[in-house]
Amino acid sequence: MAELNFDGLVGPTHNYAGLSHGNVASSSHRGQVSRPREAALQGIAKMAFVRDLGLGQGVLPPHDRPRLDVLRELGFTGDDATVVGATAANAPHLLAAVYSASPMWTANAATVSASTDTADGKVHFTPANLASTFHRSLEPAQTARALRRIFGGDAFVHHAPLPGAAFGDEGAANHTRLATADAGLEVHVFGRRAFEKDAPAPARFPARQTLEASEALARRHGVRSALFLQQAPAAIDAGVFHNDVIAVGHGERWLMHAEAFLDEGAAEWIRSAFAEVGGALKLFVVASDQLPVEGAVKTYLFNSQLLDTPSGAVLVAPMECAEDPKARAVTEAMVAEGFLDRVETLDLRQSMHNGGGPACLRLRVPLTDAERAQVHEPCLLTAAREAQLIGWVKRHYREELAPADLADPALITEVRTALDELTRLLELGDDFYDFQR
Ligand code: SUG
Questions:
Q1: CATH number among 3.40.50.2300, 3.40.630.30, 3.75.10.20, 3.40.50.620, domain 2-65+100-436
Q2: pTM for this model (two decimals)
């Protein structure tokens, strides 16, 4: 079984709208001018980097934006330009929401369970409902369509998104598979309990994932071994809006901050649950004096990709980790103590400024060779596909996007022209986006 990373291709409307309360980078970059072309090229460079480490790499297409259907549902009328003009004048925050390129963070696209871990021996997908932020709640339908098209064979089972805010689900950002060669343990991390009003919960920022959502995912996927851990409310209040901002695991390795979880025994629970499926955990815990939680949020050290490659265990980290002395010292300690073989850092600043590091940009899909043979091949990043995507970005993406540019009706046509061409490049069919239907 090998893990394929499916990264979200950054969409042409990547912008900084400050839409995510509790996501420090999103709030602090609100209103800045974004660079969509650079953002997309940084993302493609990361995909190519991981592929060149010898790993399977796929791409998930951006979503159709702006969501004019949503603005019409909210009462704006007239032709497309009139709808956009009226929204820009009366509700610019709604225009920003329907223009968000947030589907790029595919760690939040879905939860995926490996066939070795499920009762029916199939790979299970549940698209995340992303119910806790309005702009992201617009994603599940298109995500579901993409997953069904790319993973269309009989090896795959597709579930509907979970219902409503009590089952607030942010996908794989709160889900990790630890695994031996033939068995896996799913670690699910939640921020609050939906049905117990006095249970521990953050005070300042929202807890996006509920225990009830995590339990429902494991239940409907038929997962044999699952562990449920609660995030420390204080960490969420410090800006850890998803667990993948403070912990990352892969294979037999688990890297976490000492203040990640509510319960101090969390690391030992992981160790013993993993032992029950036959695994021997390799654990690295970062103490607060090595890197405080605020430093984890600032550098996104834990939002790195932890990868088993033919040349050893590699951490693909954002370049902020090389620039910050404390984070750099932690990465050096991980290598010195034998937890990793090496650390590589990449420039993903365009995404980082919205709170999206290397791990946010990828959805991990563990597949056997037979399952991999059923994946829609044009969405795998060969060198030829990489060159085509780079050319496509350079032809269609704007260099810069300021908040006021979202009112420009020309942007609607630019995006549709680009996405229409992309459906041919990735062979997704001529009915992939709603505007094509
Ligand atoms: O949901 N940012 C995303 C970042 C998601 C990061 N994903 C993981 N940690 N896995 C979010 O908060 C900001 C958009 C804006 O403000 O323009 C945004 O949606």
A1: 3.75.10.20
A2: 0.98
